[in-house]
Amino acid sequence: MSVATQTMKYFHFPVISIRRFALLAPIWVCLAIVAVPVAAGEISWYRFEVNEDKLVGVTDFGGMNHSLDAGDRLYVKGSHFFRLGADNRQGTRDDSRVRLFGISLANAANFPEEKDAQRLAQRLRKLGFNAVRLHHLDTVLSDSQEQPRGILTTAAFPSFNEAALRRLRTLINALKAEGLYVNLNLHVGYQFRPAVDQVTPLTPGEQMPFASHPLHLFEPRMISLQAEYVQQLLRRLELKDDPALAMIEINNESSLLGAWQRAQLDGLTGEYERLLQQNWQKWVLRQYGSADQACAVWDSCSMARKGIVNVKAAEAQILEYGEGWYARLQRFASKAMVKLGLTIPAALQQQYRLHQAGNGRRVLDYVHYLSDMDAQYLTVMRKTIRQELGDLVPLAGTQAYFGGVATADAQQYMDYVDEHFYVDHYDFPHQAWDRNDWRIRDGSVLRDGWPALLQRAYMRDLRKPFVVSEFNQAYPNRQSAEILPVMSAFAAAQDWDGLFLFHYIDGDNWQSAPDSFGLSGHSGQVVTAGIAATVFRQFQIRPLPEQIGVSLSPEIRRMLGGLRDGVNGTGFAGYLQSQYGLDYQHAFFSRLGVQHTMQAQTGGVIAHVARYEKNWSEDDDLWTAPGGQLRYSQAGPWLLADSSYSRIFAGTRSGLSVNLDTDKLLPMFSEKGRQYGVILLTSRDALPLKQARRLLLVLSGATAATQPNVIPQRPKQLINYEGQTAWWTLEPDVNTSSKPSGALNGSAPVWLERIPVKLFHAAPGKKMTVYPLDGNGARMKALPTTATRQKNAGFELDFDYPSPWYELVIE
User: Fold this and answer.
1) What are the two backbone dihedrals, phi and then psi, of residue 195, each rounded to the nearest 5 degrees?
2) Could you read off the pLDDT of 435-448 as tens digits, one per residue?
């Protein structure tokens, strides 16, 4: 995401501004047994920092990568990514499928010195990553040749910083040598300056919105300049036929349709309003032949300009219930019942119909127009890229959330579908990105984010690869350790093609403590990365055996676009439930996606839905996916993913409800802790878990930074935000006590949650030795023999030690 909402005068809508850059410092290994006494059921903390430069042994996952060469170039075949193979030809027998497990770099992190580029690439390789998303290259204008912070200078766009280009090319080379692809982002943050760039001026007194959203999508000179920027960037980085270039994202988090859905176009004034309306008038004339014919269909001949004026977002309400007093009554009654928590009767439920005439048809035509404008922009960018690079490199337009399923029409010539997903994103009650005034819910992807995650499966176009290029559950969320393994397990079951965590770092230096979205320094997440990567990249969890494909015609897609599907997360979901009986739970039992056709078809979907409804109901506490690899409990909640080579448990489970003798895959948490944990187990000798003699076990939970300027040192505490029990924040820093929150950029040392738990591992053998691992991943003194005992063709393990990872050796 890397952006935040502010209110600016110009459009009277949310405008994006960049996060403040983090303060970073070198990482040092640290393992100190410093426990903080707590009452039963609370968190017991210990100090632990991962040395990401020195990972060794079973914690080093770099063996999955190899240096990239011409045969590793990626392309799209069917609905997945493939590498060309040694013959460098598409569609031949030596091609092999690739999944991307990646992470973003933002802002100045894309321009490290040469020695740091190699260091960064080696770090990411060891953590299991095979791709890096180059994000916010264009946001900061930087003239410095000694320490560039952006690819562009302050001169007229596009003027390139030569030092930044050299450093970025050096970084790409270093990543390629370590087996990491790059995902190149084009328009992310550049904000056009009318006086400098000679683009259409704003109305006096108004300010250009962040990244010029959405003006850059329809102002002709802005589009022309972006095409020039793309051409020059690709040439200067010498990316033609470079195997490191896996994909390109053209436009981050922006579309005209998405802007209209968010009422952002309603605030257009001056020349930009006139330009958008002028293009709308031309579109209407092409579609209808004349204004008279159009207004006859719309019943708008008596309106100003016969109705050929920009349609306001509020006019889309007509699509929900229709026109007239009765429709207004339905709308009012249904909203009132929702507020009262009452079930809406069938007579008041939203209607899904394709308006053939009247103002509803006018709204749908306007959605069609905006989609065509988005397509025109993407066509210019696509042609520019293809002229420079050829037809192989996969392209995405923008994220599906910014317009919903209707973006499929604008992006029909794009090669893959991209999406973003966040759990418990920061909320800023007063000023955007005020690091000392923010709040979170401290939620869990397995509870608060679960429906939204499963609904992401609806956005997949079954003809194309599907990528989530941003996701996170950021610090100081106490369940943040769960996001990487849960995303890997679910994405593997859905057979998605790419995951990119947001992000690693976004500044100039290296972090030693958690900092908002950053993975570096966030030890509780770092220790989960390797196993999460293994599960996803090595196809350890089999895709769900059956697939549900929902057919959508262009008319239905435009109807959903008019219903603001791109901003109202329940829009498409509500349609699927109403028309097909599909709920978000179905994504746990079947692979889901959309088949974008010219004519809607429903027969096959109904049969699949009826079949799976027999296997579960709303009252079921435990869900078991076909094949048994995934199990989910609503009561915990918790998720168990079990494959031949790895096992994932994440969530909350009462120790009183577990019997290790009857359910050997589930943990038994001690009542001393909060009965929550992320428990990962994987083979490290290439043998299945049941035969493996060398394994890595991870026990992770909450991560905390240190409260600065306090002696003795202690973890920084999560507290209620201004006494509001539903909201949480960090206790204020001593030097900013007048503000309600502590800083999002934490101070070292790092503290991890101790996970007291009993586990069972089924494996033949006479003896198991358990080695706690230090911050380098190196063995420390083995645990006492009382920590393990042989039982029932396996070993029972009893953990309550200050380390998040362990090497298990079975004799």
Assistant:
1) -70, -35
2) 899 999 999 999 99
